[in-house]
Write a structure and sequence with these properties.
Four copies of one chain form a homotetramer. By secondary structure, chain A is α/β, with parallel strands linked by helices. Helices cover 24% and strands 33% of the residues of chain A. An eight-stranded mixed sheet of chain A has the order 9-8-7-10-11-15-12-13, with helices on both faces. In chain A, strands 2-1-6-5 form a four-stranded antiparallel sheet, with no helix packed on it. The relative contact order of chain A is 0.11.
Chain lengths: 259, 259, 259, 259
């Protein structure tokens, strides 16, 4: 089986192993990428296979890859705080995502989690994403298109608390300042027994969210937070955690609709 | 849209909200489930919708659900340590899983992660899972069948280090005592640029794994550990983390194949 | 310099290395200690030096020590939740403890933190400890006496919110269900600029405590929590964190009195 | 009881509540302190009581305090990594520190932990601190003198592995790149049954340290790491952990000398 080589209009990821730095961009004829170690010519990448070496005009060595989902999430154009991979991953399980699912996301933000959902529901699924801020929605759609997921995503302007223009969905994800507002419409849109999940930033908001879920026919299943700790592995000096870490991103809640 | 009611031969999940306890079983005509709060008759569940109330013979109230992926993972018949949801979720992202993927898993164990992979690759994908212990493989297959994923999974007895009987796969996951043994055959089976991930239990094994990856044409992308902290949310007493937590399950490694 | 040998009426700590288990008791003529590995005769310990081997009647080997402060804290007779060493240690710094200090503790509990304070303020210092529950105070005093600290500790029954019968103290520590009640009397008892610290169990109580401190002439300096992670170090299997850990004990607050 | 007012030659701590920023300096006649909010005149502080307001020449308000032990540790002149308060606090307990103790510290560094030990052993105790680097020792001594602890501290140049010029000590603390070198001399200097503690940066060094302790007559009691998580408490927005945290400082080991 021949691996697919890079072509123009594809998204490529250049990786500098030494600096652990990546660059994500769409391949264009005649264009070049400026890096801290010299220029990389797009034309040099076309025809290459993933994992191959690419040299800058100064002779510095890089590797070229297609972006994995982690890169897609981390390298989107951000206009908002994104759902971090550590949390997004947990939501994939708590929302019981699978190919063909119809999923509501309220609070599109920059579209990071939308892209993950779109990747996982596949061509037979659909992500319905809503945001009340036009400029955020437009930015998110631009991100979604970059990775070719636009056919799997429907997006609309919507205020928190408004009825969703879709029902019978398999799961609902909420990422907005006042998630409790969106709980009654989520209840209407969701199939019985199916999961709702959300991320909330403070203990007081968590408390209000959990209470509102209970009042709206939901059984709260899990409330957690995820800490990701990066580990440094060096042959000579040995193994230890990194000196810095992300201390907090949000409380994660999962619930199921009752009848 | 009418929600699908429960039928015989389906897997059901009974949930006791008060005790936060669940029971998973296959519905059989005339059978009963013994709980700490009395007997539940399978026949009472058939015809019900997910999220509905079920009463034991003593009048205790339960809820009935279909198992979500989290329940499937946690409620399998275990003959080994399983990959915990917190870690399994991270691997879904680091392995860049999507519908249609062909994935190798070395170290089937009890099949918990196999089931998650099978759910996510869908009908068009395939999970090739290998273990060197026949009794573990048989138990895992029984778990996989319970959730109807057998058509998506191929399984074989295989020793760590042996060549995989499949190639051109999209990703490789390793969960075995000596993951370094399986790295050269993983390199042969994997498409260029694609991800390999593994879980290792100690710092020394982590060091050896990372070194072996470097020697076998892999770029190590991330080494982390995931801590999941459960949060207690109670209206009267307030919000705080639980007193107990899982302190460690393993170091998680992700890498990409170079050419 | 000759190390001091054990004598009757001293407190001894027997340690089983294999099981990582300790036994704390006062040496009495003719008495014996029952362990899971046979009887240990008190008379065998008298005359021994710390760190020496002691054999049970079945020939099992133990080590004998004097209790360190950690053992004193963990082995007291408990009638309440204690301040754990990980937190108690942080309070020693936030309360700026030193020999000669006069310290108020409101919420004696079982006396674990009282004992640490008494050890550190020395013969020239004084710990004023208060509790509203007579049976807890009596138990705590019995623990304090066991380690010979009674001359350094004054104790009184007192309700939260009542004026302390002492003033001009160097620091104040609060460990009670409603710490805010004790903040105004703490302000009256404390020297200007000096620290107050407290432990609170939930986010809502934390919020109320911090607000009350601000309203009562205190500058809040730090709000933290301490996580202690035990590490398993084994020559053959390698290094990794333990599978279980304490997930939460409390939020720790430190403040300084303004004028 | 009249609180002591500030005088020249004393160390003062200026605190900007809004920015949570502190400045530590010795009060000198006629001098001024430059801050981001204007000049503060030392003469304005003399005669003031701790906790009082101080105004800069632009009218910005600050508070003046004497440094607590936490400020002393964090505000020393650093030439090395210091032992952080979260870890230093744990060592106070594991070393069973009390007034009058004689303590060895190998690896003076910048003197942060030396200062804490000196504060706690009091006038009747002694800290014997050793470093192999003259310039570090000189810097540490200058830090120790700033807080008036010089009479409680003896310092010497010494290489790791050399015999300590003191014996019969109550505890030993090691903070150096190869702690195993200092274990045999620590064994000679320490009283039987008494504690040794050390901080080590990697899993491999931890493994070697624990093994060397076992070979040199020490019983390893605890191996842990301490994570400190800062909590943000805001009246309007609510309670949540900070977004950033220190991810790792070192593995902490405690042991006791056997005979």
């Amino acid at each position: 089986m021949q691996p697919k080589t890079f072509d123009y209009e594809e998204v490529a990821l250049i990786w500098d192993e030494e600096k652990k730095k990546t660059f994500l961009f769409t391949l264009k004829k005649g264009k070049e990428l400026g890096t801290h170690k010299g220029k990389i010519f797009h034309d040099d990448i076309v025809g290459k296979v993933e994992g191959d070496r690419i040299y800058s005009h100064t002779g510095a060595v890089f590797r070229v890859f297609r972006p994995l989902i982690y890169d897609k999430i981390m390298k989107i154009q951000r206009k908002t705080q994104i759902v971090y991979p550590k949390d997004a991953a947990w939501f994939v399980l708590s929302l019981d995502i699978k190919p063909g699912d119809k999923v509501i996301e309220m609070g599109t933000g920059s579209g990071a989690f939308t892209i993950l959902l779109a990747q996982l529901v596949g061509d037979s699924g659909k992500v319905y994403t809503f945001d009340r801020r036009k400029e955020f929605l437009e930015n998110a759609v631009s991100n979604i298109k970059k990775f070719g997921f636009e056919a799997r995503v429907e997006y609309h302007l919507l205020n928190a608390g408004d009825k969703f223009p879709v029902s019978g969905v398999d799961s609902v994800f909420l990422d907005l300042p006042e998630p409790w507002l969106a709980i009654p419409p989520s209840n209407m849109a969701l199939l019985p027994g199916r999961p709702l999940a959300c991320i909330v930033p403070t203990a007081e908001q968590l408390s209000k969210t959990v209470e509102t879920l209970g009042e709206n026919n939901f059984a709260v299943m899990d409330v957690i937070e995820i800490l990701e700790r990066k580990i440094l592995v060096r042959k000579k000096q040995g193994v230890r955690p990194f000196e810095k870490m992300v201390g907090f991103t949000g409380y994660l809640v999962s619930a199921r609709k009752l009848i």
